[in-house]
Amino acid sequence: MSKLGIFVNRQTLSSSEQITAVIKCRDVAESMGHTVEFIFPVDMKKIPKLDALFIRANTDPMNSTYVAARMAQMYGIPVIDDPESIKICADKINMYMHLMKKKISMPQTRFLRKKELDEAQAAALFLELGSPLVLKEPSTSFSARVEKVESVEDLLKVARRFFKLSDWIVVQEYIESRFDWRVGVVGGQLLYACRYIIPSETFKIQASVNGHVVYCDVESVPADQVPPEVISLGLEAGNAIGKGLYGVDIKESNGKLYVIEVNDNPSLEGGEDAHYPDMFGKIISYLMTGDARGYAESLSQKALDYDGLEGGLSLRSDSALCSPSALTENESYSYKIDFSER
């Protein structure tokens, strides 16, 4: 009998949907013969005694979820999300560079740093990528700090606001669509597929409109009704990040598919599993199998050998697509941060 820890916090349990999801996960694990314990941040000392850890709280390298993931990694305990996936997906530049290295289809993307921002550069981006453009602050999540701009003036205004939080921003061509495909991936295999129907008031799956938060509708889609190329692209994008649990957002426009981003710790409580009743069973099986344990051991060894980010790839002075050819498998990119103007 193995012991599974489900890492939660107050935010995890802030809605009935989230509570229902983690209880369902517990029930499935127990039906498979495992014991389950909910682990709160104050319970981290219990992690070394677990056989596997499933993080169901917002992940970020600056909060307790990353500490929990690192602790599991150091003890060779299989964990979702693993620390490498958290670091990569928490930084849009890092995530996009992993996709570029694997030549994953995605919108045309440029990385712009503060000292490059002027009217001429902004105008050149519109000429190159078209109008409108989408600007993203690299640490964004839940569609926050993602804005559409249609003029040089708007681009400069939004970019200056984002530059208060980051030395770099992401600039992408705008891909028009009324829904995103979400492909769930675990251990390199399909977990679920659904459509996120974008609210009519916005271009994002979640946004604040007139002081009210609007959310996308979720439509679970049976695997045999999902275009095979959507599933294939989702699996490729997930594998470009690692071997954990990912939610890959894909847009379809004019017969072409584009990966918009790869999310670690994807939503599992929105009805994504309506046509995938074995969703939690697959996650638990992956955590408890040799495949997950082998991956955990490799990450544990990497953590022991870890000597910092300084040896990674650095973004240079221009805003062209940055070549990720220097990146080794499952390695985080680093890029120079200039504090001289702060």
Can you describe what's shown?
The protein folds into three domains: 3-87 and 297-303, Rossmann fold (3-Layer(aba) Sandwich), CATH 3.40.50.20; 108-173, Dna Ligase, domain 1 (2-Layer Sandwich); 179-277, ATP-grasp fold, B domain (D-amino Acid Aminotransferase, Chain A, domain 1, 2-Layer Sandwich), CATH 3.30.470.20. 31% of the residues lie in helices and 24% in strands. It is α+β, with helices and mostly antiparallel strands and 342 residues long. Helix 2 packs across helix 9 (290-305) and helix 5 (119-129) crosses helix 6 (152-162). The chain is globular and about 65 Å long. The chain has nine helices and 15 strands. Strand 9 and strand 10 (189-197) form a beta hairpin. Strands 13-10-9-14-15 form a five-stranded antiparallel sheet. The chain has a four-stranded parallel sheet with strand order 2-1-3-4, sandwiched between helices.
User: Which strand order spans the largest sheet, edge to edge or round the barrel?
Assistant: 13-10-9-14-15
Helix content range: 25-40%
- The CATH architecture category of the largest domain equals 2-Layer Sandwich
Put simply, the count of helices is 9
Kindly identify the CATH topology of the largest domain.
D-amino Acid Aminotransferase, Chain A, domain 1
| Number of structural units classed as domains | 3
Largest sheet: 5 strands, antiparallel
C-alpha-based Rg, rounded: 20 Å
> What is the name of the CATH superfamily of the largest domain?
ATP-grasp fold, B domain
Question: Total number of β-strand segments?
Answer: 15
* N-to-C series of helices and strands: EHEEHEHHEHEEHEEEEEEHEEHH
Report the average pLDDT across residues: 84
Share of β-strand residues: 15-25%
Task: Kindly report how far apart the N and C termini lie.
Answer: 54 Å
Low-confidence stretches: 306-330, 336-342
CATH C-level of the largest domain: Alpha Beta
**SSE-based structural type:** alpha+beta
User: Which descriptor suits the 3D outline?
Assistant: globular
